[in-house]
Amino acid sequence: MNVKDFYFDLPEELIAQEPLKERSSSRLMVLDSKEKSIKHKKFINLLDYLDKGDCLVLNNTRVLPARLIGFKKETHGKVEFLLLNRENKTDWEVMVKPGKKAKPGAIVEFGDGILSAKVLEIMPGGNRLVRFDFKGIFEEILDELGTMPLPPYITKTLEDQERYQTVYSKHNGSAAAPTAGLHFTSKLLDQIKKKGVEIAYVTLHVGIGTFRPVKVDNILEHEMHSEYCYITKEDAAIVNETKEKGNKIFAVGTTSLRTLESLVNDDGILIANKMWTDIFIYPGYTFKIIDGLVTNFHLPESTLIMLVSAMAGKEFVLTAYKEAIKERYRFFSFGDAMIII
Fold first, then answer.
1. How far is Cα 329 from Cα 339, in angstroms, rounded to an integer?
2. 166 to each of 62, 169, 170, 176, 204, how far by Cα in Å?
3. Which residues face 55 on adjacent strands?
């Protein structure tokens, strides 16, 4: 299977540079994977496609303001850090620009010395392992000094950083938002619950690898990035009970889907667990627990469009994307949504 099979030509002006004023005012494309039909709705119409007894699964990770701008202590040269993985209380794997200023032993200061970091080593792939020195609570310092690590295709400054968080975000740890969840408001979630739809939560901390392009022609040779995920016993029970009753499981976002498909056993039972997952879902994959998906429109030739194609069929998905371009849908993180039923 070739990566070029998942290419489509997207006009640059359709890449959403900022969120809409009202989260749930975005558009919703409805893909019926059995009937191969496409409908154009508003996101608030999501309620029409969820039945009493169904379960909606949300990823409650919270994005860290993980982009830090500092200055090298010795030369005062500007250095940019992007926090990736926390090793312990003080040590982080970070992406650094420019790398030549971050040799082992270099010290970078942030916020007039409120926070400093010493480069310990250069890791495989070029990232750095650094040790932060600070007084107080690291997360509070990060809230003060850091900014949201917006995707590279968003060039406009985000005025309200909370708009890159879901309204149900809870657990800090992501380098990017689970963007399908950005469309939900507390009001819409309440309406969903009142209809009798169950809500369950998973946590997958989205890594920066989610933006990594597929660089091989044969997608089977692509090395998938790993991300930390888990589900509690209580939430796993909600999903399992829904399935036992014959109702449907809808994942909100590819991150929720990947978590569920990683934690389900061969008998279709979701197991409460914590793990690193590098599951790669592409056409031909047999879904064990998922019945539907709410997702945004993804980049050409990305692992995410491959996942969506596994659920609805590659040709149908590419037809839907052509329709979305024709109808001027907004694409990517701050863009519109689709539901696959």
1. 14
2. 8, 5, 9, 11, 13
3. 198, 249
- The burial of 205, by beta-carbon neighbours within 10 Å (0-12 exposed, 13-18 middle, 19 or more buried), is given as buried
Q: What is the mean pLDDT of residues 304-328?
A: 97
Q: Are strands 27-32 and 337-340 parallel, antiparallel or unpaired?
A: parallel
> Within the chain, where are the H helices?
138-145, 186-194, 233-244, 254-263, 303-312, 314-326
Q: 3-class SS at 206? A: coil
DSSP 8-state assignment for residue 289: S
pLDDT digits (tens, 9 = 90+) for 168-214: 999 988 989 999 999 999 999 999 999 999 999 999 999 877 767 78
Give the dihedral sign, CA 175/180/183/187: negative
pLDDT, position 212 = 73
H-run or E-run covering 28: strand 27-32
Lookup: tokens for 127: 């990232």
The closest alpha carbon to 20, from 296, 216, 308, belongs to 296
- Which amino acid is located at 25 in the chain? S
Domains in the chain and their CATH numbers? 3-63+160-340 (3.40.1780.10), 67-145 (2.40.10.240)
* C-alpha to C-alpha distance for 9 and 93, rounded to whole angstroms: 35
All residues at 6 or more sequence positions from 181 whose CB lies less than 8 Å from its CB, including other chains: 58, 59, 166, 168, 252, 253
pLDDT single digits (tens) 24-63? 999 999 999 999 999 999 999 999 999 999 999 999 999 9
Residue with token string 């980049």: 299
* DSSP code string of 220-254: GG--PPPEEEEE-HHHHHHHHHHHHTT--EEEESH
**Structure confidence at residue 313 (pLDDT):** 96
The rounded distance, in Å, linking the Cα atoms of 313 and 33 is 8
- CA atoms 224, 164, 64, 106: torsion sign: positive
User: In the numeric block, which tokens belong to residue 310?
Assistant: 């596994």
